[in-house]
Specification:
The chain is an alpha+beta fold. It has 2 domains: 180 residues, no CATH class; 183 residues, Glucose Permease (Domain IIA), CATH 2.70.70.10. It is 46% helix and 17% strand. The strands form 2 sheets. Strands 3, 4, 5, 6, 7, 8, 9, 10, 11 and 12 form a 10-stranded antiparallel beta sheet that branches. It has a two-stranded antiparallel sheet with strand order 1-2. β7 and β8 form a beta hairpin. α1 packs across α4. The protein starts with a helix and ends in a 12-residue tail after the last strand.
Amino acid sequence: MIWRTLLLMLALAGPATAQGDAAAQARAAVTMLEDASEKLDAADGARDRVRALTETIQAFETGLAAMRTGLRQAAIRESQLSARLDARDSEVGQLLAVLQSIGTDNPTALLHPDGPTGTARAGLLLAELTPALNQRAEQLRRDLEDVQTLRTLQTDAEERLRSSLAAVQSARTALNQAMAERTQLPKRFTEDPVSTAILIASTETLDGFASGLSEIVTNEDVNVETPVNIEGQIGQLPLPVQSLVLRGMNEADAAGVARPGLLLATRPRAIVTSPTAATIRYQGPLLDFGNVMILEPRADTLFVLAGLGVVYGEIGQVIAAGTPIGLMGGTGAELSTDGDGAGAARSETLYIEVRQDNVPQDPESWFRTDKDG
């Protein structure tokens, strides 16, 4: 019966949805990346080129993360719409057949087997259902347009992603050069390289190295001080790199090894900055931690950051909050369009310890993390 077919089709019809959120997020990311490109152009003539390049790289990283998330959501939405349209091919055929029969000039097309009364009732029912059928046909048309729009958006956004990756690589190269040329930072002390080498050779644990740091300095200048009091910042310090928390303090890894610090997952080549003003107590390779940066924000406190690919600065220098202290290692995964939370794309890890009077503290009580809400 025609009316049963119509009712079945209306029952199968899903709610009207569109690509709105995914497209809006991708377009917002494009705006972020355009702003970052403008920052990169302006960095060449900036008075403080290091700061300008640091802000540029951070802007690119934020925009790229948003772009990846937007692309991933757009791909999911496009797949959902395509699957829905594919699953309803037969429904579309029935819809077209019914609409054609409604518009036919053949008076017998809508004859009801129960006679004139049934035909009249069927005609009234069809008159009521025709607007709903037209609405359903319009929704199917919009779904098809949404699929086409999302595919175009993905193509354009992926091209923007690649061009922005090339731009951020240029910014990193420029930052490397700017950091190498930077000489005006004050120094609280001068490193004693012989004492440093002896300490590294004799150290088997991070505890031992941290406790011996005071022995590797000469010509300490008591007039050069860390320029800020961090007491009021404890608990609100920004993480030094865009990242997700993999493991908290004393959480065992797959091998059962637990360390008294925070393990962060980052993207390759992500920029790492100082969470606060601090003195560089050590930078370079250490034990099995890879490249390590040890910062002293105040006399009794050390921030240990381990796992960097590149480290900046010199031992003894006093740096401001937000100063770049290195880049993460790794290559290749930056081209991934996985969303910001995708673990495979965050292939690098940064380990953070906070030590007060040489006793490890919980970093999550010092830094704002994604677990904060």
